[in-house]
Amino acid sequence: MTWTILVLVVGVLLYLFGGMMLSKGDGKNPSAGKIVAKKCISVIAIILISGSMCRLYMPYYLTTVNPAIVQEMVNGMQAQQQAEKNKQIRKYVRSEGDKMMRDAPVLGNRDAKKTIYVWTDFSCPFCRRVHGEIERVLADRDDTRVVIKNFSIHGPLSDAPAKAVIAANLQDPEKAGELTNMLMTRDFYTQDDLKDQATLADKVEANVLKMAAEAGLDTEKLKADMNGDVVAREMRNVRDLAQRFEITGTPFLIIGEQAFPGAIPAAQIETALDEAE
User: Structurally, what CATH architecture does the domain formed by 75-275 represent?
Assistant: First the structure.
């Protein structure tokens, strides 16, 4: 701003007194060169004044007169960035899709042609909301599968549920799906559990294992598998992909060619599936 004001002052002074910089010569009959020089100085002065005024007025215009244009510029930039991000995600999913779902629980028809990848956390209320929307979609179509990427981001509230569902998938994929639905629709910790952070992880795990038993899973085997290599590999794969795709929160969905950060309604999921190859 300071430099802009200085340039404006220089421009005004040049416009008013720039002619004095030239030698007087014959005042009654100035030479053609002097006339051209004076006009050039005036043009330069006008350019400096105009440019400075534009720079000074522009912030006022953008913030006061027409602030919506700033939002339009931001939206356009974000859309461009998201399009580039989608391009990179699409390229990776096409080449590494099998690896992405190798150890992951899958809802719906595992052999379906269309795939939804969802980064989710069982303790996230928005994830629970989008899970309900996904269930509505699966109820209406059999051409879709949902690959659950359990993104453990809330520490003891997230670790045991995420590991349990991955481990359950080793025993029985259908029961893993049933456990997923239980954990997404029922509470697996209480407000009293939150009061003692030292025992919270153990209490959450105990509650999760009770649900697993209710789903018909072998809880002893489940507990052993939760600490096994396959679960560790899948949890690492989830984190690595989250870093690659710049996923910083849940839920995050990849549907065909598009990525959707945040909870989206069933109708939007359906539209994305219809647009997918």
Answer: 3-Layer(aba) Sandwich (3.40)
